[in-house]
Design the sequence.
């Protein structure tokens, strides 16, 4: 494969149809007007147009865009679809990007390239590596993770920078990203406790990760936590993009540092995807709301945790979803502009089998935050649970058009989607991919039993039930009906038949 880089001496300006693609500024315009396109999909477009003389295979895209990692066909099709939407490439007999079935994709529009007339400085592209908590003590892991996400979100709000996503950061780890990402700066850092303060060490490295450009230490108290995060972002911005105004302040939903700290602990706990972790997360979110009664997202996340506990039937869980629904509505009452409150309300209503209200809630969430992949994901999986896979599909494709890498559990809705479409073999591959990385993800184990049963692997289905009973000893058919309350009897019967046949009672 010909090397594909985004280094400064190879950047080009491409003109095709009414579009201009400037690699140096990492920008696509149509008749001079900027076109909204996700960075991931723009990288795909750059690769396709550079290699327009041939068919680009899926393997080519995986190798360059996803750096050889195992990813699903959904990630590729989602990125291609997003490119076509951005280009208005909807007429099959007048394609800009043509699908060559069984082989890949090819950019087929006439394109003219030219080098920039002046030596242009590429727009800085930043990778914020996951901050580390130093030493054997893991008590600061949640704070390191929260700071990483905060810096990514804050810096990405500045038009002068391109910032790789949080999910990409998690996937790349300490690796140096490939040239297609065009990274110019790598931010590296750590957190440790020093007496009564938290010491944050941050450094800016060059694109190779070998040369340090800048470093500084910051001592933060509990009370200065939020302000400290903003100050660190300001210092980073001043080095990477000097003479630029600071980005619009990030709204985290609270100005109370202690409430924010409790919220980050809750977020870190529930991302473990273990049933008992949701009990821990719930207590942190409740504490955050207690410390700041107007912290809308703290109520929204309590609704999510209580829904999960109800679905699993864990000790201490509610008998109904009334409390969860009330918390989601309280989040909306506290802040009508917070998308998370509406998204969590939609999640609860989906379990309650109220489809019209469910759709209205998710649409309200997306109206407030159209680019939020988590809202699209929750919406898509809720449509699966309402046995509407054809509605779920487009929503899930949007999720996979937005990022190079996604958390492993996010692949579960794809498997669920394929299973509902009558494609159990495809579903099994997705579920196995999830379980290879998140062994305690019970929803994937439940649907894996059904998929194995439907392909005739009875022994595999029975082993699946045994594993579920190890993870959640009291999990029963009644719990499975809570977890997947299909309003379509055929789907409900199919799940029950598989689980009961494999030994679940």
Sequence:
């Amino acid at each position: 494969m010909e090397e594909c880089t985004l280094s400064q001496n190879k950047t080009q300006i491409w003109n095709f149809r009414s579009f201009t693609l400037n690699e140096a500024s990492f920008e696509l315009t149509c008749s001079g007007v900027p076109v909204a396109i996700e960075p991931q999909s723009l990288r795909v477009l750059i690769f396709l147009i550079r290699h327009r003389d041939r068919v680009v295979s899926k393997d080519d895209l995986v190798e360059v865009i996803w750096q050889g990692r195992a990813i699903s066909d959904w990630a590729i099709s989602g990125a291609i679809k997003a490119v076509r939407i951005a280009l208005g490439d909807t007429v099959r007999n007048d394609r800009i990007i043509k699908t060559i079935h069984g082989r890949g994709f090819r950019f087929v529009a006439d394109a003219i390239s030219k080098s920039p007339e002046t030596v242009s400085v590429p727009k800085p592209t930043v990778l914020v590596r996951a901050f580390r908590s130093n030493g054997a003590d893991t008590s600061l892991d949640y704070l390191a993770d929260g700071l990483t996400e905060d810096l990514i979100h804050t810096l990405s709000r500045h038009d002068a920078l391109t910032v790789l996503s949080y999910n990409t950061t998690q996937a790349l780890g300490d690796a140096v990203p490939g040239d297609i990402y065009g990274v110019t700066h790598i931010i590296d850092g750590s957190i440790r406790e020093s007496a009564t303060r938290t010491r944050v060490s941050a450094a800016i490295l060059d694109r190779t990760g070998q040369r340090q450009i800048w470093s500084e230490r910051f001592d933060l108290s509990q009370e200065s936590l939020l302000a400290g995060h903003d100050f660190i972002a300001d210092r980073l911005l001043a080095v990477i993009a000097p003479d630029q105004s600071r980005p619009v302040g990030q709204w985290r939903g609270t100005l109370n540092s202690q409430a924010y700290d409790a919220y980050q602990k809750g977020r870190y706990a529930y991302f473990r995807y273990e049933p008992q972790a949701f009990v821990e997360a719930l207590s942190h979110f409740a504490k955050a709301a207690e410390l700041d009664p107007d912290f809308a997202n703290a109520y929204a996340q309590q609704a999510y945790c209580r829904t999960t506990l109800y679905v699993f039937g864990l000790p201490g869980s509610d008998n109904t979803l009334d409390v969860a629904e009330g918390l989601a509505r309280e989040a909306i009452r506290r802040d009508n502009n917070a998308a998370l409150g509406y998204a969590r309300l939609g999640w609860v209503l989906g379990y309650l089998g109220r489809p019209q209200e469910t759709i209205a809630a998710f649409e309200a969430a997306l109206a407030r935050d159209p680019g939020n992949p988590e809202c699209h994901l929750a919406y898509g999986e809720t449509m699966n649970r309402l046995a509407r896979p054809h509605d779920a599909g487009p929503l899930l494709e949007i999720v996979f058009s937005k990022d190079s890498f996604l958390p492993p559990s996010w692949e579960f809705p794809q498997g669920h989607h394929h299973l509902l479409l009558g494609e159990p073999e495809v579903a099994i591959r997705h579920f196995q991919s999830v379980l290879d990385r998140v062994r305690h993800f019970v929803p994937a184990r439940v649907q894996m039993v059904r998929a194995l049963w439907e392909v005739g692997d009875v022994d595999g289905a029975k082993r699946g039930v045994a594993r579920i009973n190890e993870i959640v000893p009291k999990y029963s058919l009644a719990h499975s009906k809570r977890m997947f309350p299909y309003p379509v009897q055929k789907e409900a019967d199919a799940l029950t038949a598989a689980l009961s046949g494999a030994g679940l009672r």
